[in-house]
Inverse folding.
């Protein structure tokens, strides 16, 4: 991650709690599952052992990601009153002339909240400041218009209509 991530205190606390749970309970539980599977015998054909090892890899990857986020994050909220696009704000815009809105920040902010389902179902778009659209709009003001080439090669025009605080 190149820049710090803006997190609300609630999001920071949620991620910190998840990290604590994974380090204490999650690691212990997966170690027990691996040990139990080892006791079953031949590891080459032991599906339970391989599944547990795969789960252990996912837990360790999540622990690493959470540690990175928490170490580099800033706690606070972005101020929408100045009309400048920043992390932590909802951006209302026109994408190629069509109304659209998205949250500029990270999916991790929403994990464990009611909004996580909206993201999964496609009802709330979230783009990081490192995404192609995030790179183009970050720092722009209401009324600014930018264009960029999307990863699929299409030319995208974005006009910033409004920036608003996102209420959890």
């Amino acid at each position: 991650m190149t820049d710090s991530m803006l997190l609300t205190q609630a999001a920071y606390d949620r991620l910190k709690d998840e990290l604590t749970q994974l380090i204490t309970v999650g690691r212990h539980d997966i170690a027990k599952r691996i040990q139990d599977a080892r006791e079953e015998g031949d590891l080459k054909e032991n599906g339970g052992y391989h599944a547990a090892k795969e789960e252990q890899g996912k837990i360790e990857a999540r622990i690493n990601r959470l540690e990175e986020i928490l170490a580099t994050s800033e706690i606070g909220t972005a101020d929408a009153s100045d009309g400048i696009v920043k992390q932590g704000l909802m951006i209302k815009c026109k994408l190629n002339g069509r109304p659209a809105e998205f949250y500029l920040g990270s999916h991790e902010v929403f994990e464990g909240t009611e909004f996580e389902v909206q993201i999964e179902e496609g009802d709330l778009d979230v783009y990081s400041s490192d995404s192609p659209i995030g790179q183009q709009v970050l720092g722009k003001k209401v009324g600014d218009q930018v264009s960029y080439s999307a990863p699929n090669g299409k030319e995208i025009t974005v006009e910033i209509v409004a920036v608003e605080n996102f209420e959890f």
